Amino acid sequence: MEQVYVSYPSLDENKRHGAQQAGTQSETTQDKLIISNERPWKPWRSARSRIRGWAIRVQNAMLCLAGLEWYCYAALGVLMALMSFVMDLTVAKLLRAHHWLYSCLEGHKLLQFLCWTLYPACLCALSTSFSHSICPQSAGSGLPEMRAILSGVQLPDYLSLSNLFAKLVGLICTLSAGSSVFLGKVGPFVHLSNMVGAYLHRMYASACGTKQRRTQGDMLVVASAVGVASCFGAPISGVLFSIEVMGSHYSVRDYCPCFFAAVCGALSYRLLAVCSGEQETVNALFKTRFPTEIPYQPPEILFFALLGLLCGAVSCVYLFSHRWILRFVRANKLISRFIATEKTLYSGFVAFLLALVTFPYSAGSSMASQLTMRQLICSLLESTQWNSISHNATLLEESQQSLWQEWSPPGSSVYKTLGCFLIIKLWLLVLACTLPLPAGYFMPVFIYGAALGRFLGEGLAYLFPNGISPDTLSVINPGGYALVGAAAFAGAVTHTLSPALCALEMTGQSTHVVPILIATLISNAVSRSKHQPSFYDGISLIKKLPHLPSLIRACPKLSSVQIGRFVAPAGAVLQRGEKMAGVQNVLNNSTESQFPVVDTHESPTLLGTVTRDQLQAFLLEIQTEVLCKSLEDVCHIKPATLQLSPETTVKQVHCIMSVVREQRVFVTENGKLCGLITWKEVRSSAGKHTNTHTHTHKHTS
Amino acid sequence: MEQVYVSYPSLDENKRHGAQQAGTQSETTQDKLIISNERPWKPWRSARSRIRGWAIRVQNAMLCLAGLEWYCYAALGVLMALMSFVMDLTVAKLLRAHHWLYSCLEGHKLLQFLCWTLYPACLCALSTSFSHSICPQSAGSGLPEMRAILSGVQLPDYLSLSNLFAKLVGLICTLSAGSSVFLGKVGPFVHLSNMVGAYLHRMYASACGTKQRRTQGDMLVVASAVGVASCFGAPISGVLFSIEVMGSHYSVRDYCPCFFAAVCGALSYRLLAVCSGEQETVNALFKTRFPTEIPYQPPEILFFALLGLLCGAVSCVYLFSHRWILRFVRANKLISRFIATEKTLYSGFVAFLLALVTFPYSAGSSMASQLTMRQLICSLLESTQWNSISHNATLLEESQQSLWQEWSPPGSSVYKTLGCFLIIKLWLLVLACTLPLPAGYFMPVFIYGAALGRFLGEGLAYLFPNGISPDTLSVINPGGYALVGAAAFAGAVTHTLSPALCALEMTGQSTHVVPILIATLISNAVSRSKHQPSFYDGISLIKKLPHLPSLIRACPKLSSVQIGRFVAPAGAVLQRGEKMAGVQNVLNNSTESQFPVVDTHESPTLLGTVTRDQLQAFLLEIQTEVLCKSLEDVCHIKPATLQLSPETTVKQVHCIMSVVREQRVFVTENGKLCGLITWKEVRSSAGKHTNTHTHTHKHTS
């Protein structure tokens, strides 16, 4: 064996030296094991060992530069950007294949019909069957579940790797079904990002061991920001999204990691587009060219506010229909049994139905159904007035002209097409929301809002052909209205303000920041009136997921409900002077890992907690040594850092538990232990009120 | 008296009806009082009463539409925008007067010298003497104090109306001193906004009475956002500022109010500019015209990252010098005694010194000292390369040409001017920070960063005259580097990321969002390395203000320190069976408003609290009725909703107290009361560690 050492003495000396310093036998044994494993015929032995030495030095230098967690954040950003880019590429190829096939069959209406309808139907069926056979939890957007996990509920299936795989493949199929199914990618992407984040956190935790300073919760908050950022290349709105959607209290120490990871994701995503030759430089996703000198006249702000009102009102209709159809699907015995047993068939059927309506030779011709989602948004954000193009078609570039022709087919005006699109798409979108497959609902809503804004903008352009104040040369820009409408409608549906920033970052238009914010605030005010639940809250309520902020929003009484009546019994309780028999009994009859210790069972003043390991050590010691020792002589009782009283309100409990990130808090009354509160109890307290709430809802509706 | 009723019977009937409904005597008496106060000769009695009726109806309709707090937020935004606009106008007039006087004296160097130096010296002296004679607390930016107030410390002088007045007038004087003194307005403006917010909250609280749902803390968080928003017309960065600077946990329910108020402020501020004819439409404050097609080549991102590193390094120098000079001024007996007794003289002298250096016939000629702050930033953000102008001066418009001539005086290159500016301004800025007058330090830092970026940009433009990759037609845009540098340097000095967004919103440039964020993140990483305190933290530490997040950042050990050794004695404690004598004794010897009640004094198990009022009622009852009753028979003991143990860490205590917004929390050990924790104790725990920290600092330096 000594011969092996000869070839790389310097490294080995280091190793031996290190082993001697540490003074442990195990390390040297390990060294020998490594060395004995190295077969003598392996080539470039000295080179490899030198490289290994360098790698260790680089690793140490990197860890000097920043903590391990920062590399995890960067890796998360880059991974998600790569995933987003590959997904976009695949979806674009599949969509182009469909378009090519459809145009090849020109002249054969029946074949075209089959191609148009069966392609998305098959893809949706595939998406459903694949995701459900691998991981049934991968259906839907996953955002309400992520919110529940972030607020402390344990839903381990939602962060598993099989779910990641199922969701990724399912989402690609869903997106490839195109604009007839009309579903997006943001929500599942945030979920995917959370799964990758959870996986990275597990690696980080195993590398750091016990001294880790960041919890999984921190990583998930960061991952949510990365999800949005790498989906649109929009870092700031990603951070705002994770602030306002993901919890009720945002810890400012997550702020820098969020920004860092989001910028990594957004930059990688955009650089990938540059590398693939798609774009010339790092640019916005849907870059617009609005006039910058006078983007809008000051009086137009009133119209933008009006658009906010309109978007708010339509969002109420949409949210009501969405809740209604989800409840109907669950309540109707026939449909719910059909979905429960034949998910794939149901998906295929609904997708077929959606494609039937959008078939270009049926209603599709009057709702621009041949455009993909990307083309839809690009055409709606075009700053040229469509009305003026009708008179002079040379105003547009060729690529834009083909888009415009879809909106203004021969024998029909743009107003009619936009109107048809708005009326029909709303119901199609509501129907698509029942599909049991991985899908996002943000982008469709965003596009719908853009169409709503465009409709108003084109109408105003018709009314004021020379602009609002004719003495200046600026005319009305319907693209600006589309942008504002998109942000306002998406904000109203989700009850958030981050779509405003998302619209800015996606288009690179900072001229309209004030109108966008005004319209989004107004539409939010309308859609939040009367404590209506948001899109996410609606799903949370129907799926009975415990997301307290949304429950409080839906049922404001809850915030003043006292926790007293939801307190759970504390389970197995030990007393200070507990002897062997009692401890043995508790260990046998309970599966908990932590037990509260009280003064005596008669006067249960809470002293603290002991762990299962401590109890087992106690039993071991008492069996081998002295028999008369009691629990408190052997175990260190860890004091409970926090005690609540039964009079604390549900809201306070939620605040405290989410800030301190404690999973269980003891409730004492006059110092006496009377039970404990875990997330289950907070959930059940919320659940009871939700049920009564849903009940009253049913009665009123 | 009955005659008075005759003329407006309908309203009076309403009133009577209302009074009968309420069934209280006091209301009718009040009604009569109001009516008897109305003199019979007052004109348009019926019209006035009708108007009053309408006003009440409008008020009710408005309250139906939204809660009273939303009107307060809107009022706050509009008021601050108005204040900002009027301040800008006044300052611009005073600056123009100085400029006019200086140019009138052309040819008389001595007179010009006196005009150049005495004008700012007098204004600074005036600012100091005015603000100190009215309210000594109005000096400085006020941001560190606001952070302390928001984290729960009581500093009532900092929110008084006299402080508002002193700060407003003092700030106008400071800003009018111009670019030789080189101070800004953001910090004091956030403070002003907080004062107005606190005043509005007092009105809101008195209108709502006991049922108010919003605390003063909520209003102050909103006011901070409004301060930044109405100062620059930048709503989003205002909200981000209030998230990251003002506390350690951001409550998401403040998010919508923050945005709403910030948008109100920013919109009003920009609309005022439109109304005054300054701008044609709602536009960014320092609007830039960067090329939008290819704003930068992808390889330039590396240079932007380098700029981030550079800004981070320079910010470390600046922060170190700033802390050093503040400590020096406090430690040097001569200077500190001079400042303590002759603040006005000191201000005048320092301003004179600053003006002496920047006098155009001394060093000022080679550092563009004739430009105002606004002109400085506009000229630095110009996208044309200054180097190329030297060859072809017709590239610029006339207004820009005069600015450029300041940067490139005859016989000197732009590089030399920029270099002189960078070297001299740093020390002048550090010196200006010692001035005891209301002033902000954000804008100077922002401009300094812009100059730093411009210097790098011009250097790169010299090295690569045809752009980084010569096959495309885009050349290097030094204005982009200036923008990135400004955001990165301001972010590094304040340890925040909101300057990145601030730069975007102030210039309306969304093309550079990714470079700005990258550079700001890198410069932040550099300046935060080795736990150096930020600009605000440095002031907090030197002023010994209790801002825990900054203290934890400066002294990371603190987060794991247990609260046990800082627990204060609980003061006067009552026992459950306390009799008259004991209660009387406690009431006489203590001034507290709340007292803890324990089981017995021997075994002090905490039961809850009683208030002083309850105790006085108890004494009254016991004197008039039965003598044998004890405390618990008469008073309802309110249970303590929250108990901590001595093992809780300082950080946890801070989290919990800031989230629940409790001012005092009881500490129990095994159910027995052992003391309480208020903000004073958290502060003292922090203070002790700060002192040791400052101590070690002194030793090392």
Automatic annotation (TrEMBL), chains A, B:
CBS domain: residues covered: 644-683
Keyword RNA-binding: no
InterPro entries according to UniProt: CBS_dom, CBS_dom_sf, Cl-channel_core, Cl_channel_volt-gated, ClC
Location in the cell: Membrane
Topological category with respect to the lipid bilayer: Multi-pass membrane protein
Molecular function as annotated in GO: voltage-gated chloride channel activity
GO cellular component, one term: chloride channel complex
SUPFAM superfamilies in UniProt: CBS-domain pair, Clc chloride channel
Record's keyword terms, sorted: CBS domain, Chloride, Chloride channel, Ion channel, Ion transport, Membrane, Repeat, Transmembrane, Transmembrane helix, Transport
Transmembrane segments: 70-92, 164-183, 220-243, 301-325
PANTHER family to which the protein is assigned, alphabetical: CHLORIDE CHANNEL PROTEIN 2, CHLORIDE CHANNEL PROTEIN CLC-KB
Name of the protein in its database record: Chloride channel K
Species: Astyanax mexicanus
Organism classification: Eukaryota, Metazoa, Chordata, Craniata, Vertebrata
